C-alpha cells in the first residue's frame, strides 16, 4: 500500500501538457512542358541594310514565331509568359541590342503587332483541348533615333511561365 501511495504522489506532482502539432502542405498541379523548340528559340533577322535605318522611328520587317507549351494537366486552363530583358536606353519599350550595331533595338509584339511586349509585360495563352498553348509573337529591329551604324544584333529575352 505504501508503494501505491508513493507512486500516486509522484504522478500527481508533475503537470501534464497537451500539445498540438501543426501539419501543413500543399498539393499542386504539375506545370506544362515548355516545347523544345521554345527552349532553344532563335529568331534570325538575317542581313539588314543601314540605309533603311537612317530615319528615326524606322522598323524593319516583322519575323513571326511561336512559343509553345504542351502536355498540360487537364486542370490547367491558361498559361502566362512574363517577358524580361535589358531595356534599351533610347526607348524603354524596346529590348537593348547587345551586339555591335548602334542605335538599333529589338521590338517584340503580338502576331498582329497591336500589342508590344516590353520587359515586365506578360501574355496569356489558352490551353486547348490537346493540352497545349501557343503564344503567337513577332519581332523586328527598330531604331528610335535613326543613324544606325552597322554591326551585329543580339538580344536575349527571358521567359517565365506560370499556369492557371
Q: What topology emerges from the helices and strands here?
A:
Blueprint: H1 2-12, E1 33-34, H2 36-39, E2 63-70, E3 78-84, E4 87-88, E5 91-96, E6 105-110, E7 122-126, E8 133-142, E9 158-163
Antiparallel strand pairs: 1-2, 2-8, 3-7, 3-9, 4-5, 5-6, 6-8
Description:
- The protein is mainly beta and 164 residues long.
- The chain has one domain (29-163): Fimbrial-type adhesion domain (Immunoglobulin-like, Sandwich).
- 9% of the residues lie in helices and 32% in strands.
- The N and C termini lie far apart (70 Å).
- Mean pLDDT is 90; it is low at 1-10.
Defining traits:
2 helices, single chain, 6-stranded antiparallel sheet, mainly beta, elongated, 164 residues, Immunoglobulin-like
The largest beta-sheet arranges its strands as 1-2-8-6-5-4
The level of helicity is: under 10%
Low-confidence stretches: 1-10
Radius of gyration, in Å, reads: 29 Å
Report the major sheet: 6 strands, antiparallel
Work out the strand percent: 25-35%
CATH class: Mainly Beta
Q: In angstroms, what separates the terminal alpha carbons?
A: 70 Å
Give the averaged pLDDT, no decimals: 90
Principal-axis shape = elongated
Total separate domains: 1
**Assigned CATH architecture:** Sandwich
- CATH superfamily (homologous) name: Fimbrial-type adhesion domain
SS content category: mainly beta
- Total beta strands: 9
Q: Write the CATH fold name.
A: Immunoglobulin-like
Order of helices and strands: HEHEEEEEEEE
Number of helices: 2
